[in-house]
User: Fold these one by one.
Assistant:
Number 1:
Amino acid sequence: MAGPVVLAGHAYAGAVIGSTAAQNVRALVYVAALAPDEGETVGEVFGRGTPHPNAPALTPNERGFIWLPDEAFPNAFAPLATADEQALLRAVQRPISVACIAAPVGRPLWKDRPTWYLLAEQDRMIPAENQRFMAERMSASVRAHDVDHTPLVTAPDVVAELLLEVVGQVERTRAA
């Protein structure tokens, strides 16, 4: 992709955007996302702190993949979503491989790029305290909102507002 890029990642995808090496990435946006530091694993940062009482027990199946149990969607993953939205999220979920969350990451891009963090204060999957720790460690510009783990579904205006803010900042920096 040519031109300046703003990468955004939700949940596990935070580790993905932090691991990119693309030179044209100008900024990173974490949306209730995991942000491991160099040498850490996704599993370590996900398990940091005390889990929410409604957080599901996540165990791999016989093939080494982790699926969210059905009750996780209304109880933890998307409690502010409608029943129809929860059913859709449940239907389209993809598992994560234990190998993906057990591998230490290299130097994260957030050490070299401006970073923003949408902190989901009602998150039951990645507690707000854990999100705040990661955001502060990254020196991210934090936007805390009273949203659950899935603001892309339950508060899309909040996510869009942040993305537009970041793109505007990148454009202003580029024009200067």
Note: The chain has one domain: 5-175.
Number 2:
Amino acid sequence: VRMTVRTAFLRHEEAIERVRALELSVRQAEENYRIMQNRYLEQLAILTDLLDADRLRLESQLRLTTARTEVIYTYYELQKVCGRL
């Protein structure tokens, strides 16, 4: 039982760390998109460059949302293993 609780706890901690890392990734993707948008408006980049930056931004946001969902899931798994559910 202790090992199961420990494993569930570690999975939850890993999920939280993944969210923190992905939050940074989203900020970087948003900054990249902002830069590409400015370059596009100044006619220094083509539309496909802007669309690629937008796609990367959306993908990073989706990964973050998925990771946040995993945090919730692992939290309830931990609660279940601890007998609180």
Note: The helical segments are 2-41, 47-81.
